[in-house]
Write a structure and sequence with these properties.
elongated; alpha+beta; single chain; four-stranded antiparallel sheet
Length: 325
């Protein structure tokens, strides 16, 4: 049985080289008869591999099928795939970060130690220019993703935005890449509520805890919950401004996580927004490109006044030619 299984894997590896093979060539490579090759091809078909017979010759090729069967990768191919997946988990390609993380987790579980060491060495030696977001180690993402998938409680050390440190115990639900940051969405067992945690601020404690029964996602949708949390609730500075256009006219100008629009009437709406400084609030609001009135807080009013004076000074010499002479 072992000999047959090994031979099937060898046959599959040959067929995956994207060339046509005659039955005689395959028999010679495998050291078996052409009849055995035909039987092995039938076994591969039963396993879901679409092996086509070549018209006019006693040959075979691996075709595209209706579903994805298991693939065989040699050392260099496996290493190349792992490097590519680690790159995309960094958020360099929008929209596929979570899928890349799941695939990387599966691949690294089965990588031989020799390849794992080569991969770690390559990661250490390659210098990348990262975007402004804090770096998150793939090992941390994989540990969190595994805990979510296995429904296992997780304990980790956490540092909040003010620098305070604590130990959290949660039921992890999902790991989400959102606006160049990674977040863990989890049920906090201490507070008895759904929370979000920046992954770059946490350090998992291994091993994980007991299994738990998964809960329904918060607000019915993890991304919607995260967007609402990040728009204002979790930021040290929060503001509400009246925008002098309808919510329907402005909704395309509000990016995910920026803020929450609240319709008022056909000519105005409220924007609830949060940031880490009054200055950040001011540029986010002015970037919407519409008239607005600040409702709160006083710090934002002061920052808008500073911004207004700065803009007025920038164009003052053009509006007053005599001043530039």
């Amino acid at each position: 049985m072992l000999e047959t299984s090994a031979r099937l894997l060898r046959l599959l590896s040959l067929l995956q080289t994207h060339r046509d093979w005659s039955g005689a060539e395959l028999a010679e490579r495998l050291g078996v008869s052409s009849r055995t090759v035909r039987r092995d091809v039938d076994r591969l078909r039963e396993l879901g591999y679409p092996v086509d017979a070549m018209q006019g010759t006693a040959g075979y090729r691996l075709a595209a099928g209706s579903h994805l069967p298991p693939l065989l990768l040699d050392d260099e191919e496996a290493l190349a795939v792992a490097v590519g997946l680690r790159t995309t988990t960094g958020g360099t390609v929008t929209g596929i970060e979570e899928a890349s993380l799941r695939a990387l987790s599966k691949l690294e579980q089965v990588l031989p130690s020799r390849l794992r060491h080569r991969l770690q060495g390559l990661q250490r030696s390659v210098v990348r220019v990262e975007p402004g977001a804090p770096r998150v180690e793939p090992e941390t993402l994989i540990a969190l993703s595994d805990a979510c998938h296995r429904h296992e409680r997780l304990r980790f050390d956490y540092t909040n935005h003010a620098g305070g440190q604590s130990i959290k115990e949660v039921e992890p639900h999902a790991v989400v890449n959102f606006n160049r940051h990674w977040y863990l969405v989890a049920w906090d067992t201490g507070s008895g509520s759904w929370r979000t945690y920046r992954v770059d601020r946490l350090r998992p404690r291994i091993p994980t805890g007991p299994r738990f029964a998964p809960r329904d996602p918060p607000d019915g949708d993890v991304v919607a919950f995260l967007s609402h949390r990040l728009s204002s609730a979790s930021w040290p500075y929060r503001a509400t401004v009246t925008l002098h256009r309808s919510a329907a006219e402005l909704e395309d100008r509000i990016w995910s996580g920026m803020g929450v629009l609240e319709a008022v009437d056909d000519s105005s709406c409220l924007l609830h927004v949060g940031a880490d400084s009054p200055w950040a609030l001011s540029w986010m609001i002015t970037s919407i490109d519409t008239d607005f009135t600040v409702v709160e807080p006083p710090e934002l009013v002061e920052q808008i006044e500073i911004l207004a004076r700065r803009c007025a000074n920038a164009v003052g010499s053009r509006s007053n030619p005599a001043a530039s002479q």
